[in-house]
Amino acid sequence: MKDRYNHLLSKITDRKTNVDKFIEVLHTQTTWLTSPASTKYHLNIEGGLFEHSIGVAETLLQMRAVLAPEISEELCDRWSVPRYREDRNARKAILFTRNQRR
Predict the structure, then answer these.
(1) How many CA atoms lie within 13 A of 33 on its CB side?
(2) Nearest C-alpha neighbor of 33 from the set 54, 58, 14, 61
(3) Are 73 and 61 in contact (CB under 8 A)?
(4) Residues 6 or more apart from 11 whose CB is under 8 A from it?
(5) Where do the structural domains in the chain lie, given as residue ranges?
(6) Phi/psi class of residue 25: alpha, beta or left (left: φ > 0; alpha: ψ in -120 to 50)?
């Protein structure tokens, strides 16, 4: 599990300083590494949340490779931010229309 985690971390280059600070907080100020993912169901074991998080990250990278290979593994701002800004007003209009129908 630790090897898979380190492999995912090794992919981060652009925002490494910020991620390293976040990882430090996760490791020293939370129980993320030892907590179960659930109290009754999925990965209800010590370290289950850690295992689940790694699985989610790996799955998302696999999905990205198939569905949107043009997106960098780090979700580069050059790709995502302009697209978000471009669509932002349309999203608000859709939400506003939905709210009016209720």
Answers:
(1) 11
(2) 54
(3) yes
(4) 73, 74
(5) 1-69, 72-102
(6) alpha
Rounded mean pLDDT, 45-74? 87
Residue 65's pLDDT is 84
- Name, in order, each residue with C-beta under 8 angstroms of 37's C-beta and a sequence gap of 6 or more: 43, 44, 48, 49, 51, 52
Q: Cβ(22)–Cβ(15) under 8 Å?
A: no
Query: In the structure, how many helices (H) and strands (E) does the chain have?
Result: 4, 0
Structure tokens at 101: 């129908």
Measure Cα distances from 22 to 6, 47, 53 in Å. Answer: 15, 18, 15
| Mean model confidence pLDDT for the chain | 76
* Distance (Å, whole) CA 52 – CA 74: 19
pLDDT of 69 over the 60 cut: yes
Give the Cα separation of 74 and 102 in Å (integer). Answer: 38
Place of tokens 């800004």: 85
